[in-house]
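U., I forgot to send this yesterday:
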Amino acid sequence: MVDLADELRERLRGTVLPAVLTPMDERGVVDLGVLRDYAAKLDAAPVGGFAVWAHTGRGLYLSEADRVAVLRTWREATDKPLVAGAGVPRDVARGATLEEAEAAVEAMAVTAAGLGADAVMVYPLSALAGRAGREGRAGEADGHARAVRLHERVAEASGLPVLGFFLHGEAGGYEYPPALIRDLLALPGALGVKLATLDRAMACQDAIRAAQTTDRLVVTGEDRMFGPSLMWGADTALVGIAAARAELTTAVLDAWRRGDAAEFVRASGRLDRFAEAAFYAPIEGYVQRMHWAAVWEGLVPEAWGHDPYGVGDGFAVGVAAGERGRVVGCLEELGREG
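Result:
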């Protein structure tokens, strides 16, 4: 597994991995024909691979049958690496004990391996963060140990390299402290860590500094702090914006790696303008906003550009009618600029 992780790490370093959408209608029905077309279009983009079953693709909300079909479709569509999210599916999460949740993560990773994934990204267990908050240092220490062991279990059971995932609390995540990041990245087969701190610049910087003590990937998922996260030390990207506008993201990363300061500033400005149009409160609405962008881009048809999970279920998103105009207007403006 260590050799697999080393090889994949070097293949992915310096590239963008779109956190891909799952084309659905208003009822949540997935169309595999539309997905195949979408996958073919994204596969033609200058990206290093794809993240399937991620938050943008509603991986934990899909039925098991849909998850299997989605990953199988992507595996058939591309030879590029696939990183599959492994977490606690929504239908399991309700009422699950911590032990049952850990087992569900492991099972999802094993399924991903059987379908041809190249690595798994372990969703953080928010229950561990809750325990730290309730029980103080003892809870924090136990959560730390259990998080490390969960990543070990996933790697052992799936046989795949593992990507850690620092996910902001608004998305149900666990904001890993630097010491935990260092321990996760010290595990054999650790691919790296993805950071999605949303708007917490200091937390992002601290996490990057912890990860930089290793040779693992430092993967930015910071759509609203993309350019700064590269300047702080991130070397790879796994982001939702690339699911619809991959070139906006790749232009920034490529300019940074070339050392082209003028182009980096220009490309960052364009990406930041679109990020402002797509990532704002309520944050959970960003998935629908990315669907609208994908429709405008011609990546998916109108009938299959829906996120039925962004409202209700405790999120209370209520995406406003005028928000689509904000997204499309920004895309049109960027298009006119060339």
